[in-house]
Amino acid sequence: MDSTGNWYKPGQVFLEKDLILPYVPNVNLCDTKCISESESKRSTLLYFRGRLKRNAGGKIRAKLVAELSGAEGVFIEEGTAGEGGKAAAQIGMRKSTFCLSPAGDTPSSARLFDAIVSGCIPVVVSDELELPFEGILDYRKIALFVSSSDAVQPGWLLKFLKGISLAQIRGMQRNLAKYSRHFIYSSPALPLGPEDLVWRMMAGKLVNIRLHTRRSQRVVKESRSVCACDCKRANFTVPVL
């Protein structure tokens, strides 16, 4: 979806040339000390506070609410705007081990980045999701990814979450403390902050585009494949983590 609220047409957007940026977190950062101190206070297994009904891919929210509402260890409620809503979300996330991150009107959701900076392990239920800086960051270290079809099966999601070991949970929480810096915008920009990662990703994409452009300009007509810049190739960005 573009800035005017209209959906992009097929073929307009390619990961090979376009950048995905993270939402600005709506809650305050829970740093390493905060995460360590909150470990014993995270009594809620799974937390979600936000709009319970959305359009397009966000329709999964209503199905998840129907499946999870009232279950032991689960907290789900309609979100509200303003400082009161922000404070409630921040408190709730810091008291929870896992934070549900379903698709919104678009595949991504601001809840994902709120969860990351809160030390709450995101449980992503969004089949079409693309993530910012994925050529640099490995999201498997900080989040769980679940298909929509699995998530809405009776009892499946809670059984899956309860089966995750305490050691794995603690490891992911430590990684969340390390990864949070990549999603906190600042002025002036800091090394490995989102502004820095934007430039790193752009550099990789430019190399990739030049490769395909120059190759397409020099290959002869008998070549087996003439590749344009929209070919599905890996980004050349070098991981830093």
Automatic annotation (TrEMBL):
UniProt subcellular location: Golgi apparatus membrane
Is this entry keyworded Glycosyltransferase? yes
InterPro entries documented for this protein: Exostosin (IPR004263), Exostosin_GT47 (IPR040911)
Q: Which residues form the Exostosin GT47 domain?
A: 4-159
* Entry keyword annotation includes Cell membrane: no
For this UniProt record, give its keywords in alphabetical order, as a comma-separated list: Glycosyltransferase, Golgi apparatus, Signal-anchor, Transferase, Transmembrane
Signal peptide range: none
| Topology relative to the membrane | Single-pass type II membrane protein
Any Gene Ontology CC annotation: Golgi membrane
Report the domain of life of the source organism.
Eukaryota
Can you name one GO molecular function term for this protein?
Answer: glycosyltransferase activity
State the family named in the UniProt similarity comment for this chain.
Answer: Belongs to the glycosyltransferase 47 family.
Protein name per its UniProtKB record: Exostosin GT47 domain-containing protein
What is the protein's species of origin? Populus davidiana
List the lineage, top down.
Eukaryota, Viridiplantae, Streptophyta, Embryophyta, Tracheophyta
